[in-house]
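Schema walk-through. Below, the input block comes first and the output block second. Nothing else is stored per chain. Lengths vary across the set, and this one has 218 residues.
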Amino acid sequence: MMLSYSLLTEPCVLQRDTVNTLIVENVTQYRKIAEQMILGGDGNICFFENEEEVDKKKILVIHDYFCLNLNDRKFLNRIYAQLDEEAQSGEMMLKTVTIQSVIAQYLEELMFQTDYNIVMEEEVNLQELFKAAGIHIYQEGESLMNKIVDYIGLYTQMFFSRLVVFVGLWEMFTPEEITKIFRYCELNKHYVFDVERRDGQEIFGNKILFDEDLCRVI
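--- output ---
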């Protein structure tokens, strides 16, 4: 995978066997990069693989480490859709028709007991039923690091992402924790790219550093 950045004279190869960190000490330029990574849209950074730009939908960007939610609507909608598809096929089809009929009959009898002129849809919506039943993802990890690993695993499984982008990873975690996060990504063949404001001795891996004057430091 290649990184194209406006300050680079040529694309830079991202290494999958280590953390790739872009360090931009110029705060204005750093803010622009962080904004592009977080909010999306066109900018001065692009990722390429096999000479084609990587689809932004397949890039997982993590920046708000305390608000990662495995039961985010984008995940639950995908799960409900998969359950709905499963319910309409194979051996589950007959059971689905039966349970929809039973629920519809029950609701009709229940509505008859009221004094209101109420109606319902012709067919029980399975995805609404899943939501009403509170179907959600069980999260085991309690630590922030474990939650991040779980989030990466779920996102990449659902959306086939191979690139995980962090903003300010080294500001939040120790080298030992970052190593564990990276090892998980490496095991699952994900590229890891991080954007930082400051350099430090603890930052390991493939570093691409630009100083305050936007000159590359080799």
